[in-house]
Specification:
binds P-hydroxybenzoic acid; binds arabino-flavin-adenine dinucleotide; FAD/NAD(P)-binding domain; 4-hydroxybenzoate 3-monooxygenase activity; eight-stranded mixed beta sheet; FAD; alpha+beta; about 400 residues
């Protein structure tokens, strides 16, 4: 392996912000900053097709939609996004609608696949002439706690060096950025749940016009959608399950067993376009900045998808960092740069709490004798929240998304 000094560095570049990763965090941040005249370069290890093809989130908070529009990538979501003003919760024989609009004064969420959002942002960046390196190799961050941080990487077998003012680690949970924070500085909080989600995407009409979250004694199920003709379903499965144990026929039969009769009878099945198993964890790394490095999105935190917060939390980190860098470069307010972690973590922990709450409420935990009390507590928790206006309002205002923190 060549050391940095041994290489005959081919390309010296400079920008204000080096962005590691071209997922939703990196693309949204890059596009917002380009439009604010703050130049940036994105370095991504996978191909653009691979990044765009990842099937993931599907529910966007209004704050995320607003940022997409501000990034100049909101036209298609305005045309094709499906606005949802309510959702349903099912627990045993109880089926309750949460009136998102009525409980939050016109709040709502928009159904729009992460793949579509990624495509819109890639196209917007292309149109803005933003510089991106896909399929970059051996990406390394240097002097993140010094005055002149820089990134080195290989692209098309050529060595590059990118000097920058700041680095945004938008490289996800398995990225390299978080590991640049010294172990005696980084504090990690984690809860691994005793189950995973098996997801299936199909070109079948959704079983219901709104999302349905089910706590059935056999396990959690979620009925979501991407359009009037494309559905997304999830089943809680043991963490040891493998995809090959779940042929489509078994998935549909199990989903039917967990849905209320009326929905089960209406369910239209079809071949899986995609199937994946995702282990569930809550994870937060503090601080979310170190020297000239910022951690953004999944690089800093992971939430169980039960609260539909993962992508939206990444977007709110982006909004906070964007507002800070805009204030710094446009108003010479570099004093606010040091406040990113403090501001971002306030909302990260509240979204982590809600995602943990929804996961604890709606999943069945391994039923051992001593879990009998916990199951009764779960039922009482559900019964209280859906039958109390305060409880329903709590679920509604967290689900549509708490306000993004402003930077004063
Ligand atoms: P991402 O992980 O999306 O992007 C990080 C990018 O950095 C990737 O493109 C990666 O290739 C790149 N990268 C990594 N290491 C690098 C390196 N060394 N150099 C350069 N680039 C590097 N959220 C929901 O709200 N609802 C859901 O249903 C949902 N389902 C999910 C299912 C799965 C399987 C996963 C993994 C996540 C899911 N999420 C869901 C959460 C997900 O949507 C994330 O919150 C979202 O992708 C976060 O975006 P980023 O922070 O950009 O991280
Ligand atoms: C999805 O449509 O992928 C989805 C919706 C709601 C969630 C999680 C995933 O809570």
């Amino acid at each position: 392996m060549l050391s940095d000094s041994d290489r005959t560095v081919r390309r010296e570049m400079k920008c204000k912000l080096a962005i590691i990763g071209a997922g939703p965090s990196g693309l949204l941040l890059g596009q917002l900053l380009l439009r604010a005249g703050i130049d940036n370069v994105i370095i991504e290890k996978k191909s653009a097709d691979y990044v765009q093809g990842r099937i993931r989130a599907g529910v966007l908070e209004q704050g995320t939609v607003d940022l997409l529009r501000e990034a100049g990538a909101g036209r298609r979501i305005d045309d094709e996004g499906i606005v949802h003003r309510g959702l349903e919760l099912v627990f045993g024989r109880c089926r309750d609608r949460i009136d998102l609009q009525g409980l939050t004064g016109d709040g709502a969420v928009t159904i729009y696949g992460q793949t579509e959002m990624t495509r819109d942002l890639m196209e917007a960046r292309e149109a803005s002439g933003g510089l991106s390196f896909y399929e970059a190799e051996d990406v390394r961050l240097h002097d993140v706690d010094g005055e002149r941080p820089y990134v080195t990487f290989m692209h098309d077998s050529q060595p590059y060096r990118l000097s920058c003012d700041y680095i945004a680690g938008c490289d996800g949970y398995h990225g390299i950025s978080r590991h640049c924070i010294p172990q005696d500085v980084l504090v990690e909080y984690e809860r691994v749940y005793p189950f995973s989600w098996l997801g299936l995407l199909s070109d079948t009409p959704p079983v219901h016009h709104e999302l349905v979250y089910v706590n059935h004694e056999r396990g959690f199920a979620l009925c979501s959608q991407r359009s009037a003709s494309r559905s997304r379903y999830y089943l809680q499965v043991p963490p040891t399950d493998r995809l090959e144990e779940w042929p489509d026929s078994r998935f549909w039969a199990e989903l039917k067993r967990r849905l209320p009769d009326k929905l089960s009878q209406r369910l239209v099945t079809g071949p899986a376009l995609e199937k994946s198993i995702t282990p569930l964890r809550s994870y937060v790394a503090e601080p979310m900045q170190y020297g000239k490095l910022f951690l953004v999105g999944d690089a800093a935190h992971i939430v169980p998808p039960t609260g539909a917060k993962g992508l939206n939390l990444a977007a709110s980190d982006v909004g906070t960092l964007y507002r800070i860098l805009k204030k710094a470069y446009q108003e010479n307010r570099f004093d606010v740069v040091g406040r990113y972690s403090e501001i971002a973590l306030r909302r990260v922990w509240k979204a982590t709490r809600f995602s943990w709450f929804m996961t604890s409420l709606m999943h069945t935990f391994p039923s051992r004798e001593e879990m009998a009390f916990e199951r009764r507590m779960q039922q009482a928790e559900y019964d209280y929240y859906v039958n109390s206006s305060a409880g329903q309002k709590t679920i509604a205002e967290n689900y549509v998304g708490l306000p993004h923190d402003l930077v004063d």
